[in-house]
Design a protein that fits this description.
Elements: H1 5-18, E1 28-30, E2 42-43, H2 49-66, H3 72-102, E3 110-112, H4 115-147
Antiparallel strand pairs: 1-2, 1-3
Helix pairs in contact: 1-2, 1-4, 2-3, 3-4
């Protein structure tokens, strides 16, 4: 299980998704707090419960796929579902940020978070690498079946 390359990729992807829940990962930061989204001066995952749930679902899917190493087709479909689920909170977050910036208050200065997009990119790459390793594993099994 853990000796397979895709298991390591999926574990690292799970850690990357879990990084979204940390306080240093944010989408947008403000110079002064307000009573709304920027009550803590940052807009992060915790400001929208839908994002918390969707990131949690994609985290569970990635970690569950590690234990499905015997069923590579199911593992592949679960990872494709995880990729799809991961795009929804990102789109939701940037739509929320865009809506909030349109109603900007005078004197507020915003800075975009770099950690969240980097974690997202790393997670996508790791899941794609895991999918490629699963496909290579499947091709190896098929070639061994042909030799028998």
């Amino acid at each position: 299980m853990i000796q397979r390359l895709q298991s390591i990729y999926l574990l690292l992807a799970g850690l990357s998704i879990g990084g979204q829940y940390s306080e240093w990962a944010y989408y947008l930061k403000s110079n002064k707090p307000d009573g709304g989204v920027f009550a803590d001066s940052t807009f992060n995952v915790w400001d929208n419960m839908v994002q918390v749930v969707l990131w949690g679902i994609s985290l569970v899917l990635c970690l569950a796929a590690i234990f499905l190493y015997k069923n590579r087709k199911l593992q592949t479909s679960i990872l494709k579902t995880a990729l799809f689920v991961m795009t929804m909170p990102v789109v939701s977050a940037y739509l929320d940020v865009w809506e909030y910036i349109k109603n900007v208050q005078d004197g507020m200065v915003y800075s975009w978070g770099i950690v969240t997009p980097v974690l997202l990119f790393v997670t996508f790459v790791l899941i794609l690498l895991a999918l490629m390793a699963i496909q290579k594993d499947e091709q190896t099994v098929q070639s061994m079946d042909r030799l028998r």
